[in-house]
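Extended Data, panel c. Modelled sequence:
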Amino acid sequence: MTDRPSPGSQRAATVVGIVCAVLFAGIAAIVVWEPIVGADTAGILALRSLTSPALTTVMLAASFVAHGKLAIPLALLLAILIDRVAGHDDALLYAGACLSGEVLHLALKALVRHHRPVGISPKLTDAGWYSFPSGHAMLAVVIFGLGALLATRTAPRSVRVVAIAIATIVVVMVGISRVYLGAHWPSDVIGALVAGLGWSAACLAWEARRAASRAVAPSGATQRL
C-alpha cells in the first residue's frame, strides 16, 4: 500500500503540469503560426548524417518499444506490477493515465494538424496521420516514465533512481528514433515530451488531491456528529 501523497507533492505536480501546458502551447503556436522548418530540417539532417546499418537497427528497436504492439503489453505488465507493489489506486491511476494520454495525443494531433516531414530523409518506419505531437514519444513518457515512478514509489531510493534513469533513457531513445527514422520533425518530439510530462504530472496532482479529499472527509464527518 502506498503512502498518501503529501501536499508538497501535489503542489509540485500541479506546478509541473501548468509549466508543461504553457510550454506545449508555445511550441504548438510556433509550429502552427511560425513553422520552424529550417531548424527542424537541420535537426533531421544532423541525425541522418550519423546513419549506419547498426545505428538504424538500434533506432528501429527503440521506436518499436513505443509501438502499440509492444507498448500495450508492457503497459499491462507494468499495471499488474504497480497493482502488486503499490496498490489498486496507483494501478488504476496508471491505466487511466495511459488510456487518457492516448486520447489526448490524438486530440492534439487533430487540433494542430501538422504535416510530417517529406523528402528530407528516408522514412524507415510506419507513420501516418498528423505529425505533432509524436504519439510514440508522448506515450513513452506516460507508459515508462510514470510507470517507473509509480512502480517504485515505496522502493528504496537507489532502486527508484535506477528505474527512473532507465525510463528516461528509453524515452529519449524513442524520441530520437522517431526523428532519425524520418517519421517526425524534432519539434514534434520536443512537444510530445513536454505533453507527456505535463499529462503525467496532471494525473499525479489529481491523485494527490483526491487522496487529500478522502483523508479530510472522515474527520469532517466525525466533527459533525
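The longest helix spans residues 186-224. This feature is highlighted in the accompanying rendering.
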